[in-house]
Amino acid sequence: MSFIIIIIALALVFDFINGFHDAANSIATVVSTKVLTPFQAVLWAAIFNFAAFFIFKDHNVANTISKTVKEDTMPGTIGLTVVFAGLIAAIAWNLLTWWFGIPSSSSHTLIGGFAGAGIANAGWAAVNSDPIIRTASFIILAPLVGMFIAFIISLWFLLSFRKDILPKIVSIVILLLVIWFLKSIIVTDPAKLKTHFESYFLKVVFYPNNFKWLLLGFILILFAVFTFWLNTLNAHKANVWFKRLQLVSSAAFSLGHGGGDAQKVMGIITAALIANGNIANFSQMPFWVPLACYSAIALGTMSGGWRIIKTMGTRITKVTPFEGVAAETAGAITLFATEALKIPVSSTHTIAGSIMGVGATKRLSAVRWGVTINLVWAWVLTIPVSALLAAGIFYLVRLFQ
């Protein structure tokens, strides 16, 4: 019993470290654009990290993470040792990259550590290939998707400064696409709307899977309406409004960050509980697991990750409030979509790609590609280094069991 408690405690420590390690993802742009002070920014991000607890209820990513290593290769103490080794490796890599100010992925180090320890225990057959392949592929795809969406949003905003009919047509098309998407994805079947509200309207709105998409749709509709009169503002007034909108976009990204990253630790804790025999399968995950995980990541975010903020907010490219809105919105869209697809992606990779996307709208040389290449090397190395480290820790622990 004491071993499972140690593992749960370590998982929550990792979640806390994930919060302050990845705090820069959520707040770098609002700090670098001076929309909020560093303290205000981490508090703002932490609030929405925790608010994700009430919105992301399907736990798709947690389910994927828990199945990284096959359950039948992790019985009892051996299974707990696999999880323990993976967590120690992930914590070590996270602290190392934080110390050197490298925005590596907490998600990938956790998956790499878990998989590495599983392989050390029972060979390559112990690992489910699907979660690993999907995760590894999105090392490349997540920043590219973020970059593309940010580039498109930036062009949309830039086009809206023009005083002709074309920008308004573009905004109307975007409005219609958002409405069409919401109509196609929102659950309206009363039998599926399991909430405590009596009103059918409130049941539809606050059904967790609906609420996150309605929230994202509202933000995009808000931006579309804003673009209708953007060309009537001078540069100073437009900048003031973009600073206000950045509060909205950074909140959305923090929701996506909390909703995705806390679930990864939920998956690890659930895998440990299954190995220890406390529960039989993922669907029996206790209520306290998500509550503890969302609380830990929010507290970690409040602790800040100042070493990484400079890299994310200024070294990749200089970010203005206008570009901050575009980058954070692109990041939020990517995180919400990948969570729905059960793909554990890196919020670090996503926002870094988004920042590159807004930088590229000025000119390709506005992005400091030398910094970017160094980040990519860190991203590529995270999973294999974490896996090797976890394997070594697993063998070391087994010597004393």
How would you describe this structure to a colleague?
The protein has 401 residues and is mostly helical. It starts with a helix and ends with a helix. Helices cover 77% and strands 0% of the residues. α4 packs antiparallel against α10. It has 15 helices and no strands. It is globular and about 75 Å long. About 2% of the residues have low confidence.
| Rg over CA atoms | 21 Å
Number of helices: 15
Portion in strands: under 5%
Alpha-beta content class: mainly alpha
Shape: globular
Rounded to the nearest angstrom, the distance between the terminal CA atoms is: 15 Å
Biggest sheet overview: none
Q: Could you tell me the mean pLDDT? A: 83
Helix amount, in percent?
A: over 70%
Order of helices and strands: HHHHHHHHHHHHHHH
Low-confidence residue ranges: 310-317
How many strand units?
0
